[in-house]
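pasting input
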Amino acid sequence: VLPHLLLAQSLAGAAAPSPLALWEAWPAVRFVTDPAPCLRPADLVARLEALRSRHEGRLALEEAGRSVEGRPIHLLTVGRGPRKVLLWSQMHGDEPSATPALLDVAHELLSNADRADARAVLDGLTLLMVPMLNPDGAERYERRNAQGIDVNRDALNLATPEGRLLKALRDRHRPEVGFNLHDQGRRTTAGDTGRLATISLLAVSGDAAQTLTPGRQRSKRICSAIVAALAGLVPEGGAVARYDEDWSPRAFGDNLTAWGTPVVLVESGGLPAGRPLTDLTRLNFVALLTVLAELARHDLAGVSPAAYEALPRNDTGSYADVVLRGGHVVQPGAGEAYRADVAFDAASPDPSRAGCQPPAPGSRVTEVGDARFMAAGTSMDAAGSWIVPAWTAVVRGAAARAWLGEEVLRSWARLGVASARWLVEPGERAAAEALAGRLAGSDRTRLVVGEAGEAASGLALAGPPREPEGADLAQVLAALAGAAPAAGTVALPGLLAALGSGRIAPDGPADLVVLRPGPDPEAPSRAALSAVFVDGRRTR
Ligand SMILES: [Zn+2]
């Protein structure tokens, strides 16, 4: 017997890899290494063609249609079994996590075609994969297509070529099950568990009464199998949840189910701080491979819908990136210090988080008040502290260009300056704006150019800061402006007004300073800066 036949026999007898083994193998065996948010339509086409070359003659790649703007929409067909499964991703252009996972799944199956579990999938099923249904939206990283239509609300109108393509595939192949692969809000939580809904599942209904057809019963078993596959793999702080909407009459999942192809909705969601977005692609890879193997082998016989039915439901609005807990807010115009938590989100669009776009500004305060039931990526104990709006600085004259630089803006941000208005004569404005644009960054004071004549209030700054002698407010202000306020005599609200402090209010930017009072609470200038957030990012 030839050695390679022996090898083939031993592989054929080998057990299917466990979900944990698939999870651990993925970094080395994945076919697409780009993070999903960085994969543009042209990149995907190149990866699909590379996949076809790698597995020449063992998969079919065809242009199944074109988008509104003429981009190709590809259908990747793997396996030649009698039972058809349709999987589509990125019908919303900014929801890409499963897109590379589909290519990874195809590559993994074809690379292990000698192994029994992969053989069962390839011989038993025909996988019809549309990795990027909405390439125009993907090009712009937007939800909708180039007509401005949400393709997933177009199942009845069929006004979009992308929607018509999906319907035509369904009608031509009559798949016995469909996988509708999306991303959801990254701050969705699993019920009131305080954990992020990393993956949410729905065994989609085909009618408003949520009739439990045999097909939908199996969708529930598929969801239960995904729950089992991902147990222990979802990063700490995340969870599998149940998608919150039962029936959406214009959506494709619901209508495909009604037309005879029961649909499983998989929504990739939030990850705890520090975890890469590629975890979502990795979880999709494990979940899809595991359930496809179970579908092929025994049609998920013996799997109970109970694990799916017991999932906590998706919840929104109960998670913030940062919550400052137990502090007292002081701000101009709001009287005495008052007990309030402050919750906020720092903007982090997926392409920025994945490293293919620069960080984007845009923090948002989401709660001022009682946030005790709010979960957070980062909780900070602010008990006994004052939470106050960060300062605004005023810089006068174009000559400041001699000393304004990134390091100055970073130092200011550490000392509580959220923004600086740089006032110049009209003729110098263009040059000042160009410099301000070059100096902009997410870890520093925002520099905004204004007119020399305008009335601007705030902390007047005329040069780079000194290194403060300590963290006391008086020392910090002395380091910034060269003059300390009269220690012990100025009430905090008045002091804040003089510093050009803004407002802490819902939907406003998270420009905040946390002050720890000194021994004499009547002497706010002796309070210490314990934390500073500029546009939601901690700078101190
Ligand atoms: Zn979506």
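fyi Residues 93 and 138 are 4 Å apart (CA to CA).
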